[in-house]
Amino acid sequence: MDEENQRSVPVLPWMRHPLDVTRCEQLSLRRVPFLDCRLKSALENMKISKLFPVQVALWQETIGPGNFERDLCINSPTGSGKTLAYALPIVRKLLPTSTVKCLRALVVVPTRDLALQVKQVFDAIALPLGLRVGLAVGQSSVADEISSLVYLPGEEEGVDPGFLSPFWFQSKVDILVATPGRLVDHVNLSRGFTLKHLHYLVVDEADRLLREDYQSWLPTVLKSTQSSNNDDGGGGGDDVFQLGFPYSPWSRRSCSGVERGSNPHSRLAKVVLSATLTRDPGRLVQLNLRHPLFLSAGKMRYRLPENLESFKLICERKVKPLYLVALLKSLGEEKCIVFTRSVDSTHRLCKLLNCFGDLQIDIKEYSGRQHQRVRSKTLNEFRKGQFQVLVSSDEMTRGMDVEGVRNVINYDVPKYIKTYVHRAGRTARAGQTGRCFTLMSNDEVGRFKRLMKKAEASACLEHNVPSHLIEELHSTYQLALSKLKEIILESRRKPKDKSCQ
Ligand SMILES: Nc1ncnc2c1ncn2[C@@H]1O[C@H](COP(=O)(O)OP(=O)(O)OP(=O)(O)O)[C@@H](O)[C@H]1O
Fold first, then answer.
1. Does the UniProt entry include the keyword RNA-binding (predicted)?
2. Model ipTM?
3. Pocket of ligand 1 (CB under 6 A)
4. Domains by residue range for the chain, with CATH
5. What is the pLDDT of residues 199-254, one digit of tens each?
6. N or C terminus of the chain with fewer C-beta within 10 Å?
């Protein structure tokens, strides 16, 4: 059963009294203690002048007095800057770089496009400091990928790496961003790939990653790191702990059972994040967390971005496409994502919209039905502003950050508030404003209202489309429908639809 529908979910004791991230103030870079000057200039190059609250909170718990003593679970809204919140302290902790490279930090995310996005953030702050970031996402063959991650001695001389002892292999990267399936492939099959030296494990979009088994990635990773971490070598940290932390957004809670001053690098430190973090003990227990500290924004589990405006648009089911077209027209040039309930309806709706002759809006599809190559290309074009409207299914957009998306449209009312949070969260990111419109019929209004009650900051106004606009669209709609029919018949005659390749 989905967690949202369970009547009473027992909450783990450490989750009952979270530290409230919203009590942290933004902090300008010059006031961030122990921020390496190279890190500071890398951030400035990214046009970042201050840290967001969740970033300050994590810095406090990792580089500040928290000193990564406890594993961290973070529930913070979409677009609040969670990626940098974990990337920054990890990069800081991996300094100074040792002459022998080894894989010391691993970030696991559910999708390939998200992994590419996270890698870009790490690249921006880690490369200037001499740290290298790798990617394990199945973009190329296992063999090609492993050669980008590990030096295989004797490669040039034609020595079969199978005959070499693990001693001969050396990592090319300090940090790895991976999707679970390909990660397991490397752990099980790739000679020279090891998690033995891992000090930091990040599980991003944790509720999604813990919900599905993905070839038992979590037990596999934890097992591969278990025998390790008895040696020191995380680099940095202790000096910071000794010196103390001048900025304290909250008084630190005592952490029972943890020896203060014990070396945090003698274990694998874990950071677990989501905008809708699971509270299901059965799922969280798999992570084998050590004295976890729960950081959360606000009181409720679900919280929408501060500058998001939510609207409902009530219309009859059979004229929904007309309302959508009228809405898209009224939004003009603004970048927009339209969510539907399934890959099939994504495909159909995108085709239908493209059949509206006078719409003059470029629209493309993005869904799990497409080949990864097509999907990534579409996303790149959308990022570059080469088209305005992306019609998308749910599962692919977790965590996706596309600059300039001002509007999200739910073509179908989402089933769960969690889905609403992640969809709406593609806009109003990083303190920007954004709007989320949900189309619904009269008989869905009650359910939608109950759904929205589950989230903080979820006021929802009604948005009206003038009836004359709908009237005007009727004849174009009929033409679009017959055009779509033709396309469908045509594609049935062909063996395969090219858009899926
Ligand atoms: N300190 C900052 N100053 C300005 N922009 C920032 C800062 N930190 C992050 N950002 C920007 O905020 C946007 C959202 O960040 P990020 O993708 O990490 O959010 P998130 O909390 O992980 O969201 P989601 O839950 O949807 O994955 C990104 O475009 C990022 O570049």
1. yes
2. 0.99
3. 48, 50-52, 55, 78-84, 275, 399, 401, 425, 429-430
4. 13-152+169-227+266-296 (3.40.50.300), 308-492 (3.40.50.300)
5. 999 999 999 999 888 889 999 999 999 754 444 333 333 333 333 333 344 444 33
6. N
